[in-house]
Amino acid sequence: MLDIRLIREKPDFVRERLATRGGGDEAVIDELLKVDVGVRKTQTELQRLYAERNRLSKEIGAKRTKGEVTTELVNQVNAIGSEINKLEQASLAEGNELREQQLLLEIPNLPHESVPIGKDPSANRVVRTWGEKPRLIKPADHVALGTRLNLFNPEWATKLSGSGFICFTGAGAKLERALINFMLDLHTREHGYVEVSPPFLVRRDCMIGTSQLPKFEADMYGLEENQLFLAPTAEVQLTNLQREEILSAADLPKKFVAHTPCFRREAGSAGRETRGIIRVHQFDKVELVKITTPEKSYEELASLAADAERVLQLLGLHYRVVELCTGDLGFGSAKTYDIEVWSSGQDAFLEVSSCSNFTDFQARRMQLRFKDRDGKNRFCHTLNGSGVALPRLFAALIENYQQADGSVRIPEKLQAYVGAKGIKRE
Q1: Is the Cβ–Cβ distance between 17 and 110 less than 8 Å?
Q2: pLDDT tens for residues 233-258?
Q3: How much is the pTM?
Q4: Which residues are identified as catalytic?
Q5: How far is CA 394 from the centre of its chain?
Q6: Which residues of 395-424 are buried (b: 16+ CB within 10 A; e: fewer)?
Q7: Which of 158, 171, 186 is nearest to 398 (CA)?
């Protein structure tokens, strides 16, 4: 959520930055400012009345101490109380404060000045690449490989849950578990993240805190009249762990990692990307979250991306890092790097991690603050990124490590987790 004071003081700057996103969000600023005028007018008048009532109450106390008559002053206090009550009721009826809050929740974050300006992914910028594409002759895609090696069973998944779900089986289930354990060990042992195993159901205010709501409510699986949700990503749980707290600057950054299933209604339009296990309603993900100070957040963003990249490097998978343009940024992000692994079977790059700096956008929603060295309470900066997501990693790995005899070779760093050097047809 943006700071209302920034919008009041620099409306043109806010409109300009929002306009680079290309979503027309800058048009909301005029409506918000009109509503804010009414809110501030009411608040100013209420503050005046509260101050006057307090002054008169003190005067009454002083007169009573001296044994003086206070009837007139008491009547004045009562009259002010009635005026306050009427003003509060009128304010509630007008709904300006609620409307202002709703409008603020609907406005996306401002892109950082370093983000390339563009209206769609064609303006995204490749920052770096790592490794080389494997040299394969007519590589099979993950669907053919998975079917041949009995790594997953689409029919079972459909029977259980309908379309858009996965059911890993046999060596496939073992490989998925191995990848999860490998990533958790890497991030906790080498990168210093604290592992968390959170609940998979989250409260509505937590979803608002990380900006999934209200913008993307239609894409979420809601329960209890949408007061409880199946988490779409562990970003929600990990970032909200210390909501409504004031942390010490000395304890920052906080670094959390979790493996959870992720649930999302939207599974893409019909086409190549929805075939197989590339885009589904439920998938596993290892998520990384950082909570830090404003001065360190972009430095932490760079190290966050490096932590996610390390997964692909150790697995020997070719990938590229893409800086998203303003028009392709997520709703709450100020700056994002997508990490895309090469998929031989798709003959394309697949996004397996999106590393973002949300600045104080999420922290402001969840009242997550820290006390700086001068004793001032300030909003934290929050960051998150997949470290990394399955099943795209799974698909790219089996496609890139397929062998001429139809088997799949297991990368050396993963062999101890799988307990084998390869997967062959049974």
Answers
A1: yes
A2: 999 999 999 999 999 999 999 999 99
A3: 0.91
A4: 264, 279, 351, 354, 392
A5: 23
A6: bbbbbbbbeeeebbbbbeebeebbebeebe
A7: 171
